[in-house]
Amino acid sequence: MDWLIGDKPSLPVNSEDVYFIKTPKEFYATLLERIKTSKKRVIFSSLYLGTGDLEVDLINTLKESLESNPDIKISILLDYLRGTRPSPVKSSATLLSTIAEKANIFFYHTPDLRGIKKNYLPAKFNEIVGLQHMKFYIFDDSVIISGANLSDQYFLNRQDRYVLIENNPKLVEFLENIFNTVAESSFQLKGNGALVLRDNCIHPFEGNKVDFCEHVSTQVRSILLSLHTEPTESMTSHSSTTSDTRIYPFLQFPPFKINDEVEILMKLFSHSENDINVTVATGYFNLYDDYLDAILKKSNYPLTFLTAAPDANGFYNGQGLSGYVPSLYVNTSKYLFDQTKIHQKQIKILEYSRPNWTFHGKGIWIDDEKNGLTATMIGSSNFGYRSVSRDLEAQVMLVTSNEKLRTRLKEEKNLLMEYTSLLESATFLRRDHFVPFWVKIFARHFRNFF
């Protein structure tokens, strides 16, 4: 798999320290358990925190940890726009203000929302401009990397992916450094509910945009450069069990011109050899045009897409225009489905549909049987326009030749496919797959916001 990874920096992982959390309830239970048992640090990066009973219990658990362990450091990074929006009355900031005196709570504001857009775009709609979208949850020297947010639906009936990597201080250090860099240029929540910037911080939407972006970019690039000091081994073959699994961090920070994810995905989707098998999962099927072009014109391997059926989309039956969001993603599915026939590609599209559940899973699995390798990419990205050009995303690629871990990766993928069905021509004749003409026109001009 050197053709894909090249000389990208990586960190060794003990394959026995990699665990796959299977369900939303298990994810929530793990969060609570790890908060209670952590000794030195708890660090959460997420889009937002919900305001229901489960989220209140989560905050109370954090509060108890702060009270019982004076040595623990708790830090949380959320998005400013999503985290301050009332839902319906309280917001993430409202709930977190109860622990803000003892914990470090930050809200990142995109530098792209400023001026007229800042003044006139209403709440919720202003979130289309850009968000803090990284999802990772650190407990001492272990971390859960996921696509799930801290909200009740993600704890109950919204299927996502969650990988727990134990006892890896180097990976945790890297993620903590990224967290701290973004946090230093974000608003900090105070106990009285005020959101303030630290002294000498360039204001994200009132200050000079170029200066703000250059400052953050320089800091992040320095952290990425530090990874190159770690010894990196070829993943083509392994003779030692201590190095049979490695992890490659990737960031996609569009405002700061850091595009690791685009670089590796263009390599993957342009691969012309029929020597791998690839599965791509995304809850929001709106692939970047360059990815689609590469897949249709260059790729030559079996490729399966796993996405949400309209009734498993979080916007299904939504109020007003949001209720048509699932149709935007069906429109993309239909385009790829038709183009697959024209280009005679080995592409399948599977839709996840489960009564009273939604699908938010995202990631990539790559099977290289010739070299005895399996890779998975897991993190916050949906591989669409938002990920490429608007939001802050954090991903890792786990590459292993360990047979037990390869089997567990296959089991994790198969579990997500348990409630899927193959997209066929007849599927688009169903009422829930009907795409209004105006949605097709809208998608042509505005799909880069979704």
Rg: 21 Å
Determine the N-to-C terminus distance: 31 Å
Q: What is the count of distinct domains?
A: 2
CATH superfamily of the largest domain: Endonuclease Chain A
Query: Which runs of at least 5 residues are low in confidence (pLDDT < 50)?
Result: 237-241
Give the structural class.
alpha+beta
Overall pLDDT: 95
CATH architecture of the largest domain: 2-Layer Sandwich
Query: Helical percent range?
Result: 25-40%
What's the tally of helices?
15
For the biggest sheet, the summary is: 10 strands, mixed
Characterization of the model:
With 450 residues, this protein is an alpha+beta fold. The chain folds into two domains: 14-225, Endonuclease Chain A (Endonuclease, Chain A), CATH 3.30.870; 244-449, Endonuclease Chain A (Endonuclease, Chain A, 2-Layer Sandwich). It has helices spanning 2-5, 24-37, 53-68, 80-83, 92-96, 115-120, 152-156, 169-184, 209-226, 260-269, 289-297, 325-343, 385-389, 403-416, 437-446, and strands at residues 11-12, 18-21, 41-45, 73-79, 104-108, 136-139, 142-146, 158-159, 162-165, 187-189, 195-196, 245-253, 258-259, 277-282, 303-308, 347-352, 358-359, 363-368, 373-379, 393-400, 420-422. The strands form three sheets. Strands 1, 12, 13, 14, 15, 16, 18, 19, 20 and 21 form a ten-stranded mixed sheet that branches. α8 runs antiparallel to α9.
